[in-house]
Amino acid sequence: MITAAEIKFIKSLSQKKFRDSEGLFVVEGEKMVQEALKSGFEVEKVYRKEEIGEAAMARISALSSPSPVLALVKKPDVPFRAPSDGLYLALDGIRDPGNLGTILRIADWFGIDAVYASEDTVELYNPKVVQSTMGAIFRIPFYTANIPSLCSSYPGKVYGTFLDGENMYRKELSASGIIVIGNEANGISANTAACVTDRLFIPPFPADDPGSESLNAAVATAITVAEFRRQNCRKR
Amino acid sequence: MITAAEIKFIKSLSQKKFRDSEGLFVVEGEKMVQEALKSGFEVEKVYRKEEIGEAAMARISALSSPSPVLALVKKPDVPFRAPSDGLYLALDGIRDPGNLGTILRIADWFGIDAVYASEDTVELYNPKVVQSTMGAIFRIPFYTANIPSLCSSYPGKVYGTFLDGENMYRKELSASGIIVIGNEANGISANTAACVTDRLFIPPFPADDPGSESLNAAVATAITVAEFRRQNCRKR
């Protein structure tokens, strides 16, 4: 059974202000709920269609086809850890929820040590972000940070992709460092760009004729991170 | 000025059946409309906010923030061309509009010669697909095809990514061929897989421990195509 008040409460969590005040977020689907349960995250409550009925599930679900299971999960309180000897992503204003989720999934596949996001990056616990991480949200350390400060105080290399950067495939990429990912429309901000030590470019094909003007932010992240790992796969 | 009948007509084009019967699709935004006008596509009509008013634009626009300009574009009637001596993508059931748009944008950046899509791939002229191509829709030859037939009659190599494929970075990838991209949930279908000559795998990092179970379809496409172009960038 589920009460009307509970339904209202769960629906309120689609809004950031209630996620903030309640310290909870919503996870949907068999796989995501399993991932939540086996993660270090605290699962407050699980709602199953068999228990609450299909109509109630349709009301609490944010998905167009309601999943059979939904869970309320506590937002973890993780103490900030500065980047050190690993490979990190710094997100400089990612606005699209699908892009943020996809970037976390990429980070997970390629063993990124932590993801740092600017204040103006879309919120991690936005339902569309959560679902598109496909579970990576439970595995990748994620911190909000002032990206220019983070990068300028980092002792290692800070990489970023720019249209006037150097061909990524002709550079020796280090095994550790920060890779900055810029905003979908405007790229890397001027303040952050000032801290980038190595400007990279993903060459189009043919090299002098990119059909499109740019690549999607998550796609550029994927190609860049894959190349870092390709070059350094034997170093660890 | 715009009439009520015109508004109704434009709104009807959000549905596939009307796009099919009218042979038209909708393009929004300054950049997209410019791309349409300079492409070989026939632009039937352009609606500007200054001319029709903000309220009418909000009614005909499919975007949450209506763009200042919207155009009706004729679906081109392109005779089918089979893959020959180039690099091609074959989409085996891509269902997410954003993924299809992103894949076309990747194809455009990396100079893919044509994209072939199965009947069960999301329709190319779906407004979400169109907008997420960022203009690539006007540049990349796109055909609907029976993917198993296409691949089995192709004389060159047919590549596909599989979880049990060979590490892509340890293989010599050819400059021409077909790269098959599988469905988001189920991967490459059995009928298509039977025609794949070279099974590839994008290695996670560390190599024996993928955090996530898979990569997003567009992300896997990007990493794979980038590697083909990296290996073959000096051959043309």
Q: What this model shows, in words?
A:
The structure is a homodimer of 236-residue chains. The first copy, chain A, has 236 residues and is an alpha/beta fold. Chain A has ten helices and nine strands. Chain A has helices spanning 4-12, 16-22, 30-38, 49-52, 54-60, 97-109, 127-132, 147-152, 190-193, 217-232; strands spanning 24-28, 43-48, 69-74, 87-92, 114-117, 142-144, 158-167, 177-182, 198-201. Chain A has a six-stranded parallel beta sheet, with helices on one face. In chain A, helix 6 (97-109) packs parallel to helix 10 (217-232). At the A-B interface, helix 6 and helix 10 of A face helix 6 and helix 10 of B.
Largest sheet of chain A: 6 strands, parallel
For this structure, the quaternary state is homodimer
Biggest sheet of chain A: strands side by side, in what order?
6-5-4-8-7-9
The global form of chain A is elongated
Q: What gyration radius of chain A follows from the Cα positions, in whole Å?
A: 20 Å
Average the pLDDT over all residues of chain A and give the rounded result: 95
Distance between the termini of chain A: 52 Å
The number of helical runs of chain A is: 10
List its salient traits:
six-stranded parallel sheet; 9 strands; alpha/beta; three-stranded antiparallel sheet; 21% strand; homodimer; 236 residues; 10 helices
